[in-house]
Amino acid sequence: xxxxxxxxxxxxxxxxxxxxxxxxxxxxxxxxxxxxxxxxxxxxxxxxxxxxxxxxxxxxxxxxxxxxxxxxxxxxxxxxxxxxxxxxxxxxxxxxxxxxxxxxxxxxxxxxxxxxxxxxxxxxxxxxxxxxxxxxxxxxxxxxxxxxxxxxxxxxxxxxxxxxxxxxxxxxxxxxxxxxxxxxxxxxxxxxxxxxxxxxxxxxxxxxxxxxxxxxxxxxxxxxxxxxxxxxxxxxxxxxxxxxxx
Length: 246
What we know:
two-stranded antiparallel ribbon; Arc Repressor Mutant, subunit A; 48% helix
């Protein structure tokens, strides 16, 4: 790409069968490829297996050296703005843009998301004002948020709980309206040491990163899904201070 200015990032990404935004982040050292994606890219580039393994070991060593892992780009908003954005359909609208059948029409968006047209129009204006959405042409919208996380320093536990509650309600609704072959539900009950919660949170973040890489690989997108990872106590031990006397 550096030798030939006419060989674009998109062309290179298409050759590697990964999303161009993912490739851009990798080339700018803002993101690492998973071991599985790295192997696939290595084969498409004609690299020897040992070369790919050596590169994988070197990146793992850099990660183990204490350097913080690459994180998605962060946006920080005041509390009011954040609470508006926390409504699930803001993110759904941005993700819909990547769907092959996407239409730049508020009525179509409202229909596929099952919400009011007025809510769609308000959300679109909010996303435009915050620079998270760009209308480059009448029939071309661009998600400018990228692989981002959204934060507010003033975010209260009550606001977080409200966001989680809305996601749970979506999940319950999906059980009733979405056939089982079009959704994934896995549950398990485990006894854990509470001291391991920070590590479990890290594993959840790593899993989400793997999911982002998987969906960024080549292939037309045809739907938008909500992914949730939950780990919470189902006993009253935390409330009782661990008293086992009954």
